[in-house]
């Protein structure tokens, strides 16, 4: 076929880069023009299908917002590998997938081109030996527009492409390119005023990868082909679907490309998802350690549906303990609405997973990026912060808090920071209304009051007598209130900086712990889980916990808790001497917020936490490089071991058992 009809739009140029699609798409209606197209990770495999690579995505952005996104990613060394542009909602919306530009090749992105603009930039790309990686066709203000991305053709691959093909032309084109020894790398089916049309991009196949292409098959046949090709060692790289076809097939029709998977790296494919299902699967697959290589959406009789294909981007999918851990968590979660787990070994995340729901009413699955309350795990953070502030010259662990707060009541005059963050300050804990109604009333006031500083909250209890029978520095008396007193001293030592800022500026920001902070319920930008209470869990409002920032007022993700623990073991948080001191220097069984012990001959340190909407556990095996964090959105119910602790203990047990 050397001649093309006017309906068969053809541009011969060097072949398209075959790259990774990572974009989450927004829900939209179908246009009578080409929907989102995608480029795919086929060749060069080294550049565009590495085992692991930095990636990111934006979606549903206005033209102006996308320009800002693009500039930020470009500055960080990323290039666009997949582009989407549509006017489903009436105005132009743009999204893109970005992948780290490992070989620093040049690239070009244009998102709002007229027919004339497209012809001009296509010619520019041909002259400068750039190959197209994605083409979008959309209707804006009644006229066809284009968005496209090109990359420098470092590999020197030749190829071909067509769009606006009828199905008969699609078949002829398939046969032609197959004879030339090429392979398909992009397929799209879309509705136009003249009926269903198809677009294809082909590329040289120097790696001699096996492949399969289908353009117009039923849902049943697609499922059969999917299973057949999976069993034959092929993986999908693109999927598209339309309601009806130019070949006369009724109902929903499907097509796609499968290619050989020589390195046998894991992959996942999802199709026919609603918007909420797509969002849940998106976050789940990221947790599992995959990067998105294709995303699509298409119109069905039931509305817009989504498809996604994922490629393993870490070793997490192949972690040998994953099946056993999944099964144990499923068995231990009970009636807890949602639980999130993160596990790190020797600085590398080996497991991340959410179970249940972060928002039951709206069907939002829990994932490891949901922010949850730490409850008393905050005390372990406080212990680490205390030694870090000592290293930074703000205080000494043996300093008395009264030395920084001259007005402190006399009973606290000799109490040190170390004693307070190790539960040896003899400060009272929560009061019983039956035995101490005044103290219980003060606690109730604190739980409904927003405090700007720990120093503002501490006077509510600092005049109360010490715990009867407790000698400061000698006896262990568990006290959330004691951590607030320590926090007030830190604020005074810093010249009045609120402890929430001290934590952020002195610990979290330098370590990249972006979610670890004092809970601020009014900050709607935080992706929080809902919180629940009761044996038959119901959503409950948040109580005020700003009074106890270091004793139980923090929020974070389990991922950031394990990052903190792994960086602590690596020497990035405290000096080696202070890491040793943290868990051995005092000789106490509880020190600096951690319970200290052994398990099967391995050193073990841990902290639990429970409060309204929270059941949390942090477990570290210092000599084995193991850090485990489990966080739930309901406090433990009844007796026995809390679910978060039981899950962490079981994971730890399995990991210790497989050590050499």
Textual characterization of the structure:
Keywords: Signal. This is Beta-lactamase-related domain-containing protein. The protein is elongated and about 90 Å long. About 30% of the residues lie in helices and about 30% in strands. The strands form 8 sheets. It has an 8-stranded antiparallel beta sheet, with helices on both faces. It has a 4-stranded antiparallel beta sheet with strand order 1-8-10-9, covered by helices on one side. The chain has a 3-stranded antiparallel beta sheet with strand order 2-4-3, covered by helices on one side. It contains 18 helices and 29 strands. With about 650 residues, it is of the alpha+beta class. The chain has 2 domains: about 10-320, no CATH class; about 330-655, DD-peptidase/beta-lactamase superfamily (Beta-lactamase, 3-Layer(aba) Sandwich), CATH 3.40.710.10. The protein starts with 8 loop residues before the first strand and ends with a helix.
CATH class of the largest domain: Alpha Beta
What is the percentage of strand-forming residues?
25-35%
How many domains, in number, for the residues? 2
Report the principal-axis shape. Answer: elongated
Helix tally equals: 18
Describe the strand arrangement of the main beta sheet, using strand numbers: 19-18-17-29-28-27-26-25
Overall pLDDT level? 90
Helix share, percent? 25-40%
CATH superfamily of the largest domain: DD-peptidase/beta-lactamase superfamily
Largest sheet: 8 strands, antiparallel
Compute the CA-based radius of gyration. Answer: 29 Å
End-to-end separation in angstroms reads 64 Å
Secondary structure: number of strands: 29
InterPro entries: Beta-lactam-related, Beta-lactam/transpept-like, Diverse_Enzym_Activities, PGH-like_rpt
Domain Beta-lactamase-related: 326-638
Keywords: Signal
Pfam family, one: Beta-lactamase
């Amino acid at each position: 076929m050397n001649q093309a009809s006017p309906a068969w739009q053809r541009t011969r140029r060097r072949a398209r880069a075959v790259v990774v699609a990572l974009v989450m798409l927004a829900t939209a209606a179908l246009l009578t023009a080409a929907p989102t197209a995608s480029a795919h990770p086929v060749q060069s495999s080294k550049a565009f299908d590495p085992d692991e690579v930095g990636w990111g995505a934006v979606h549903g952005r206005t033209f102006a917002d996308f320009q800002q996104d693009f500039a930020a990613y470009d500055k960080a060394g990323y290039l666009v590998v997949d582009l989407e542009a549509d006017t489903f909602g009436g105005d132009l919306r743009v999204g893109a997938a970005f992948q780290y530009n490992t070989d620093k090749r040049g690239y070009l992105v244009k998102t709002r081109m007229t027919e004339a603009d497209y012809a001009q930039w296509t010619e520019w790309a041909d002259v400068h030996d750039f190959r197209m990686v994605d083409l979008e066709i959309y209707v804006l203000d009644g006229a066809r527009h284009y968005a496209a991305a090109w990359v420098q053709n470092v590999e020197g691959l030749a190829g071909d492409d067509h769009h606006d093909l009828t199905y008969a032309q699609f078949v002829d084109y398939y046969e032609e390119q197959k004879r030339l020894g090429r392979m398909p790398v992009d397929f799209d089916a879309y509705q136009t005023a003249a009926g269903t049309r198809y677009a294809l991009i082909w590329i040289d196949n120097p790696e001699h990868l096996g492949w399969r292409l289908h353009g117009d098959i039923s849902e049943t046949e697609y499922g059969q082909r999917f299973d057949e090709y999976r069993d034959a060692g092929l993986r999908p790289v693109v999927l598209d679907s339309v309601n009806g076809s130019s070949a006369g097939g009724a109902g929903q029709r499907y097509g796609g490309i499968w290619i050989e998977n020589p390195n046998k790296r894991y992959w996942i494919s999802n199709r026919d998802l609603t918007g909420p299902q797509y969002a849940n699967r998106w976050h789940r697959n990221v947790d599992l350690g995959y990067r998105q290589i294709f995303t699509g959406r298409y119109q069905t009789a039931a509305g817009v549906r989504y498809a996604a294909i994922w490629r393993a981007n870490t070793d997490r999918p192949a972690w040998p303990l994953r099946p056993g851990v999944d099964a144990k968590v499923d068995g231990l979660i009970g009636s807890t609405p949602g639980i999130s787990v993160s596990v790190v070994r020797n600085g590398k995340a080996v497991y991340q997973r959410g179970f249940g729901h972060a928002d039951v009413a709206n069907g939002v699955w829990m994932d490891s990026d949901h922010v949850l309350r730490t409850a008393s795990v905050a005390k372990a953070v406080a212990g680490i912060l205390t030694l870090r502030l000592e290293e930074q010259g703000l205080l000494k662990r043996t300093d008395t808090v009264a030395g920084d707060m001259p007005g402190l009541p006399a009973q606290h005059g000799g109490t040190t920071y170390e004693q307070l963050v190790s539960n040896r300050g003899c400060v009272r804990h929560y009061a019983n209304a039956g035995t101490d109604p005044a103290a219980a009333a003060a606690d109730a006031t604190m739980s409904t009051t927003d405090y700007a500083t720990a120093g503002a909250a501490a006077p509510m209890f600092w005049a109360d007598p010490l715990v009867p029978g407790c000698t400061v520095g000698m006896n262990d008396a568990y006290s959330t209130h004691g951590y607030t007193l320590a926090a007030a001293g830190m604020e005074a030592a810093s010249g009045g900086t609120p402890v929430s800022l001290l934590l952020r500026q002195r610990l979290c920001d330098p370590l990249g712990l972006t979610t670890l902070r004092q809970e601020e319920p009014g900050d709607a930008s935080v992706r929080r889980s809902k919180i629940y209470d009761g044996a038959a869990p119901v959503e409950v409002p948040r109580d005020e916990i700003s009074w106890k920032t270091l004793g139980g007022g923090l929020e974070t993700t389990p991922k950031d808790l394990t990052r903190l623990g792994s960086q602590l073991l690596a020497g990035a948080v405290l000096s080696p001497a202070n890491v040793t001191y943290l868990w051995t220097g005092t000789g106490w069984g509880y020190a600096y917020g951690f319970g200290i012990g052994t398990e099967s001959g391995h050193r073990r340190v841990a902290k639990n936490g429970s409060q309204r909407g929270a059941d949390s556990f942090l477990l570290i095996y210092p000599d084995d490089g193991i850090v485990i964090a489990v966080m739930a959105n309901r406090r433990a119910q009844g007796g026995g071991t809390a679910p978060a602790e039981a899950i962490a203990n079981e994971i730890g047990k399995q990991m210790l058992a497989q050590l050499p």
